[in-house]
Amino acid sequence: MAGSITTRLKRALRHWRTTAAVGREAFPATSLSDLGAAITEGEIHHRGEVRLIVENSMPFDAIWNDVTNRQRALGLFAEYGVWDTEDNCGVLIYVNLAEHKVDIVCDRDIGRLIEPATWQAVCRTMTEGFARGEFHDSTLAAIAQVNELLVRHFPATGEGVNELPDHPIVL
């Protein structure tokens, strides 16, 4: 069911207010560098490919068309090729700063082995930390949890190829 015009306008205003400056405050360049390094380090120990996308605010048309956080994450999962890895073990951590939401989308082979409740717990690590203003530390903790899950289910089997860039994307 589509939201009312008032609901859509309120949502649009929230996204409009969440500027790039808000994103830089939450995730400054040094933090993004640390997060990318944590992804790189984790991928040494497993076959997974982890992408972190932080979006300050969704595009207006997505807001107006009532695109949910999950739908947006699924679209970015496809757009950035996280699904297109050799072992079908890509993981997208999507942060929507305007809505204070996190979604994790995983490729089919991972989805068969790791329950949605486990991914929801990782998302809670981030959202609870974000509520305290701990963007850096809670995101590092979540990346560590994702890496631990991938090591358990998709351990490295030798020299792996890094199929996706490790540095976070900020939209």
Structure description:
With 171 residues, this protein is α/β, with parallel strands linked by helices. Helices cover 54% and strands 13% of the residues. It has a 4-stranded mixed β-sheet, with helices on both faces. Helix 3 runs parallel beside helix 8 and helix 7 runs antiparallel to helix 8. It is globular, with a radius of gyration of 16 Å.
Mean pLDDT score: 92
Tally of contiguous helical segments: 8
- Total number of β-strand segments? 4
Instruction: Tell me the Rg in angstroms.
Output: 16 Å
What is the helix/strand order?
A: HHHEHHEEHHHE
The amount of beta strand, in percent, is 5-15%
Cα shape: globular
Instruction: Characterize the biggest β-sheet.
Output: 4 strands, mixed
Structural class: alpha/beta
Strand order within the widest sheet? 3-2-1-4
Compile the SSE list and pairings.
Blueprint: H1 5-17, H2 20-26, H3 29-43, E1 49-55, H4 60-64, H5 69-79, E2 90-96, E3 101-106, H6 108-113, H7 116-131, H8 135-153, E4 169-170
Parallel strand pairs: 1-2, 1-4
Antiparallel strand pairs: 2-3
Helix pairs in contact: 3-8, 7-8
Short structural summary:
This protein is an alpha/beta fold and 171 residues long. Helices cover 54% and strands 13% of the residues.
